[in-house]
Structure formats: C-alpha cells, structure tokens
Design brief:
Layout: H1 8-18, E1 22-26, H2 27-38, E2 46-51, H3 58-66, E3 70-73, H4 76-84, E4 92-94, H5 103-109, E5 112-115, H6 118-127, E6 132-138, E7 160-161, H7 165-174, E8 178-183, H8 192-206, E9 214-216, H9 234-252, E10 257-260, H10 264-267, E11 271-282, E12 289-293, H11 302-306, E13 312-314, E14 321-327, E15 339-340, E16 343-347, E17 350-353, E18 360-363, E19 386-389, E20 395-399, H12 404-407
Parallel strand pairs: 1-19, 2-3, 2-10, 3-4, 4-5, 5-6, 6-7, 6-8, 8-9, 9-10, 12-14
Antiparallel strand pairs: 1-11, 11-12, 11-18, 13-18, 14-17, 15-16, 19-20
Bound molecules: pyridoxal-5'-phosphate.
The site of pyridoxal-5'-phosphate has 17 residues, from helix 10.
Length: 412
Amino acid sequence: MTEAALSVEHAAQVRDRFATPCYVYVRGALEAAARRALAFPAPFGLTVRYAMKANPSRGVLELFRGLGLHIDASSDHEVERALRAGFPAGSIQLTSQMPSRRLAEHLARGVLFNACSLHQLEAFGLAAHGQSVSVRMNPGLGSGSTNRTNTGGPASSFGIWHEHLGEVKAIAERFDIKITRLHSHIGSGTDPEVYKRVTRMTLDLASKLPDVGVVNLGGGFKVGRMPGEPSADLADVGAHVAQELTAFRDRDGRSLRLEIEPGTYLVANAGLVVATCVDVVDTGHDGYVFAKLDTGMPEVTRPSLYGAQHPIHVLAQGREEADVIFVGPCCESGDILTPAPGDPEALAPRRVPRPQIGDLVIVGGAGAYCAAMSTINYNSYPQAPEVMLEPDGALRLLRRRQDLDQVWGNEV
Ligand SMILES: Cc1ncc(COP(=O)(O)O)c(C=O)c1O
C-alpha cells in the first residue's frame, strides 16, 4: 500500500491556487482503500464503519457515504458532523471516552450506542430501559504502533475490562437491556498477529453474552507510510477472522455479523501536504542542515507526538543530495518532521535533494490524524486548506484556509 503521488505540475498548481501549506486528498486512493476494506472476508455479513476521527472532512465523509460505509463517531460532536454529511442516524455508532451529554437525543434519532464503561452502560440503561446496546470490552491485550496508540490491556483506559463481564450482565439485567453487539478495538497500527489473537479473545467474550449477534473488531490496521514499511494484509487478517467466525458458529450455533472500523487504513496514504521550504540553516561541520518548511506540527503533529515517520519529497530532481533535518514553522524545538522513529526527542536526518528556499516539498502519508489532530493556531498560524484531487486532475477546494479573524473571532 503506497502513498498517493502528486505530480510536480499539480503541486505547483496547489501552491498557485491555494498557497502552502495545503492538504491534498486523492479521490482515487480513498476509493481504492474503501473497496479493499469492503472486500474483507466475513462469512455472515460485513459492515465497515469509517472511524471518522482519522479525517472528518466533509468531502471525505461524503465520498465514503457514497460507497456504503457506516460511521464510528468518537464524540457527540462527530455524531453531529456525520449527520450533517448526510449519514442516516442508523449508520452511525457512538464510541466515546466521554460519557455522552446528548445520549437521549441520539437514541431518539436512531444513532447506535457503544457503552465504553460500566458508568456509560448504566447511563444507557437509565435512558433506554428495555432496549439493545453494544458494549466495548478491553479483552486484556492490545497493540499499537507506539504505547500511546495501544488501547488494549491493563495499561489502557478504553473499554470495560474483561474481568468485569459479570457486572456488565448485572447492569443489563437491572435495566432490562439487551447486549446484542460486542466491540473491541485494541489500538492503532496493531500487529496483525495480535489482532488475530484478540479476535479469539473477543469471541470468547461473545460466547458468554448469548444475545450478541454482531461483533465489531475495531480498526487499527497498520499502514506503511515509509518505503519498505509493511502494511497489514487485510486479506490475510480477514481469512483468519473468517475462520474464527465459522469455528464460533460451529461450536456455539450463532452466525455473527462482522463489523470493522478502520480509520488510518482508509485515508492515511491518500493524503499529503504540499509545503514550501522557507529557509535553510546549519549548525556547522559537526552539526546538522535544517530545512525549515511552512508546514510542521500545525498540520502534521504525529512526528512531534509519537516520533511517527512521514515520507518527505523535495521536488528538485537532479540536485545533489544531503542529510537534512526538516523542521516546521513554530517557535518550538519539538516542531520536527524528521525525529527518530518512535522517539520524538531525537533527530534522524533524511537523505534528500539538498533543499533550497522556495522549493516545493511534499509530506506524504498525511491523510489520517493530520488535519484531524493538528495543533491548530499555535503561533497563530491559520488552519490550512484541504483540497481533493479528482480523477480528471481537477483540484477541488474542500475547506478554505482560516482567516486571521477566525483565529481570534471568539475573543470577547
Ligand atoms: C474505537 C475506535 N475504532 C476505530 C479506530 C480507528 O483506528 P485506526 O485509525 O488505527 O484504524 C479508533 C482509533 O483510535 C478507535 O478509537
């Protein structure tokens, strides 16, 4: 699964029309990823929920709605955003760390609810006596590309700890609610082998919840952004999951419908940021060459947060190469685009055509958790625009650059 490419001509057009930094999403790449997810093997039916937290841009949501994807919303606000993008209420499920402040309203509209703690399950019982619900369980094991993206096991606050299943059942009985759906999501960038093990652990929990007819195994499918970095093979993971579901049917009698809810997998490599090199400095013979870009932690926060790796292309073919540290525009020594893998505090130079002021530079793998998770307005930089590259080569504006007035507009 490789990153979507942008020609030099298109990058120049982006800069001329929208200025830099600017996010670009490639429709063809988004569609291809969605089609691969929809082909996930599932012997008793499949729903693919897009984890919209990865990229909630309306243009992206509408594209996925058109392809038949459903929604995993992570807050009351995301529920609202999905409804405004035209998703029917019944295709949206709320899975939130934060207890919903609008639960009764969501339920009246038909939005689905996934209780992520015993407290949330009780709140559902009070609001929806006699109805059916999903529960998110922490099956006891997790895996993420970093500890910060691991959402399973004893060090994670996500979901209901598996040993509390008795309390789940007691609450269900007390409020006469039915647990018809079971959910686990154990991290982002999950090791496929751990995903397979957790499938079995989740099905073992399902065997103790006799009303469950749908099992949601979450997202987390790893995407390689850097050259040579592996991506999860959905066909391989899916074949294993299908086998487990069939074996479950054979021993338990229930044919469980499968749900998966990828975020990263659907959007990560379909997005990029077009930027400009605005300065080049160095720290002497034994130091470093630093290329300063007009993009950094405000648009692509993941490197400074996790030591995440994004490909960086200097559009200057044929130029002599150099080892370069790329930094962003903020007065913050942590605003680095090339930290060491998994270590945001260490520098890892990249071998690239030696950048010059004015060069166009592309930061790849920027479709997931970039526009969605930015340190917006730090140093008062306005939020960058988002553009869709259509199959006919047209660049369609999805979101304008913020005006400065919007940066301070709520001050009173
Ligand atoms: C409940 C839930 N489902 C799905 C996802 C999507 O994960 P990913 O983007 O790694 O596929 C997340 C991400 O945090 C999540 O919390």
